[in-house]
Write a structure and sequence with these properties.
By secondary structure, the chain is mainly alpha-helical. It has one domain. Strands 1-2-3 form a three-stranded antiparallel sheet, with no helix packed on it. Helix 2 packs antiparallel against helix 4. It starts with a strand and ends with a helix.
Length: 240
């Protein structure tokens, strides 16, 4: 007697005898597959903190000041007359030191009022640091060539671009905060920033006619910003 098994049926002598049950897959135990909704799921993105951006910026500010002071060469002589050629260089250094200090101070206050940052804010911050990093070069050229049109004009261009970059950074920070944020309220219309940009735009062409008047514009803008700006501090105090 010959038995043939095919597709679960046992054939004996040409006649089907019985059907054998096929093995079935055992369902997984202990695995819960949640239903997938038809609507698109909302992805929650983690907001970037400002710590690394602030630390990096502080380091760049410190390097800029270090480069400027290292560019000050010692006089070739042992009497006071040897210091005379260094006077324009020293005054250029003092003016640029004040400008870098103003930017560092305002940058610190700006980030204190901000809650978080984003990729666009990081690039805007790098844009600002780029123009500030050119201050040592413009400072030495203007100091070594006092009241010369092109050095004075280039110094104004660097200040103008740094001012515009700071304006862009401010707008990007405000755009990435919540609606009605403390930063937006404290900055307001930023009239001092607008006045500074206008002063640079007037001073740059004046450098080719009256360089000393253009230099006076740069000094006046620095003095205007030396007056403490309490907008952000008042907003921080009111929020406590």
């Amino acid at each position: 007697m010959i038995a043939v098994e095919l597709l679960g049926l046992t054939w004996i002598g040409g006649q089907p005898l019985r059907a054998q049950s096929m093995p079935t897959a055992t369902p997984a135990v202990g695995i819960d597959f949640p239903p997938i909704p038809n609507q698109r799921r909302k992805v929650a993105y983690l907001k970037m903190t400002k710590g690394r951006m602030e630390a990096f910026s502080d380091g760049v500010f410190a390097v800029i000041i270090t480069i400027m002071v290292l560019e000050l060469k010692s006089p070739q002589g042992t009497n006071l007359a040897a210091l005379r050629p260094m006077v324009p260089v020293f005054f250029s250094y003092v003016l640029s030191f004040i400008y870098v200090g103003i930017y560092w101070n305002n940058h610190h206050h700006l980030l204190q009022a901000a809650q978080h940052v984003a990729g666009a804010v990081l690039w805007a911050n790098l844009h600002l640091l780029f123009w500030l990093s050119l201050i040592p070069f413009a400072t030495m050229w203007m100091g070594e060539n006092p009241l010369s049109p092109w050095p004075v004009a280039l110094y104004g261009v660097v200040l103008l671009m740094a001012g515009l970059a700071y304006f862009v950074l401010t707008k990007e920070l405000i755009a990435h905060q919540r609606a009605g944020s403390m930063l937006a309220i404290s900055i307001g219309r930023d009239r001092k920033g607008a006045q500074s940009i206008l002063a640079y735009l007037v001073a740059i062409p004046l450098a080719f006619v009256r360089p000393w008047i253009a230099s006076a514009f740069y000094v006046s803008v620095a003095l205007m910003w030396l007056i403490p700006d309490r907008r952000i501090e008042r907003a921080l105090g009111n929020s406590e």
